[in-house]
Design brief:
Elements lengths: L1 H5 L13 E8 L1 H7 L2 H8 L4 E8 L5 H9 L5 E6 L4 E7 L1 H5 L6 E4 L11 H22 L4 E5 L9 E2 L2 E2 L2 H22 L2 E3 L1 H9 L3
Parallel strand pairs: 1-2, 1-5, 5-6, 6-9
Antiparallel strand pairs: 2-3, 3-4, 7-8
């Protein structure tokens, strides 16, 4: 609770000006899947830019779960940290330990995959708004110069067996539409930008 607010230093440079660009990702396995190779991709495309990356991971983590873990001070996250080209994974970390590990320039959030599987996006948006507001509010307080993003993730693969439910092509399409609606509204409500991973996956699946 108070630790994360009182011990943090605030960013003094914008992401464009930072000599070392520091990126923090909060989410579930889809954030891990997306960003584990991002360090290498960045170094390949921008060899002169130095990067530090961190991922605070908890399986299936939703906005509600994040906020509950913070309020009840639970050390449930695995912290993936890369500041020299090598990922170090430390389990049993508190949220504030990941946030205070670096002076982050970029921070991303994502919703738990199951929230969009068959749910009503409007209902889920209303349910999660108070938690999203609290999380993004903390980030803005701790790192006022940081750029904040929403990670728009992808639909399950056709044929994937999730909780004894086989994903069909129709379900995959409707899942993507729900994710897109959700992500667009989140960005409008919280004043953040979208990372369109879900769109990229759909293009690949559609043969684009």
């Amino acid at each position: 609770g108070e630790t994360s607010t009182t011990q943090a230093t605030t960013a003094t440079e914008s992401p464009e000006e930072a000599e070392v660009l520091k990126i923090m990702i909060l989410g579930s396995s889809r954030s891990v899947n997306t960003f584990q190779l991002l360090y290498e991709a960045f170094k390949d495309q921008m060899p002169d830019q130095e990067f530090v990356m961190g991922v605070m991971y908890y399986s299936g983590c939703s906005m509600t779960m994040h906020e509950n873990f913070i309020k009840t001070n639970q050390p449930v996250y695995s912290f993936y940290h890369n500041d020299n080209g090598r990922w170090v994974i430390t389990p049993g970390k508190y949220m504030h330990e990941g946030l205070l590990a670096e002076n982050w320039d970029v921070i991303t959030l994502q919703e738990g995959s199951s929230k969009m599987r068959r749910g009503d996006p409007e209902k889920e948006l209303n349910t999660s708004k108070i938690y999203r507001d609290a999380l993004y509010g903390r980030f803005r307080e701790l790192f006022p110069r940081a750029k904040l993003y929403w990670h728009h993730t992808w639909a399950y693969q056709v044929g994937y067996n999730r909780d004894s439910y086989i994903v069909t092509a129709e379900e995959q399409q409707s899942y993507h539409l729900r994710q897109t609606q959700y992500a667009t509204t989140v960005c409008e409500q919280n004043g953040v930008s979208r990372i369109p991973s879900g769109d990229a996956w759909k293009l690949v699946r559609d043969g684009g």
